[in-house]
Amino acid sequence: LEKLKTEFGCECNIFFEGFVRDVIHRLDDVDVLVLPSIIPEAAPTIIQQAMSRGIPVITTNIGGQKSFVKDKIN
After folding, report:
1. Which helix (H) or strand (E) holds 33?
2. How far apart are CA 30 and CA 14, in angstroms?
3. How many helices (H) and strands (E) does the chain have?
4. Which of 6, 42, 43, 64 lies at 20 to 30 Å from 50 by C-alpha?
5. pLDDT digit of tens for each residue in the chain (74 aa)?
């Protein structure tokens, strides 16, 4: 992860959080949520929580993720 941050020149702006218990409070510091899940989850609540706060979401086109995030719409 550190190599990726250095390679793309974003040492200060990218955080790889992994699992977070109290995620709703952490969203206060998020500009864009990226959820590159490879598991077809039914309805990741983090997407709903981020969108309710107006945070843009980028995610994979599998599982329930694709029902929340519509390409070129939201």
Report:
1. strand 33-35
2. 10
3. 4, 2
4. 6
5. 677 777 777 666 677 777 778 778 888 888 888 888 787 777 788 888 999 999 998 888 888 887 888 877 77
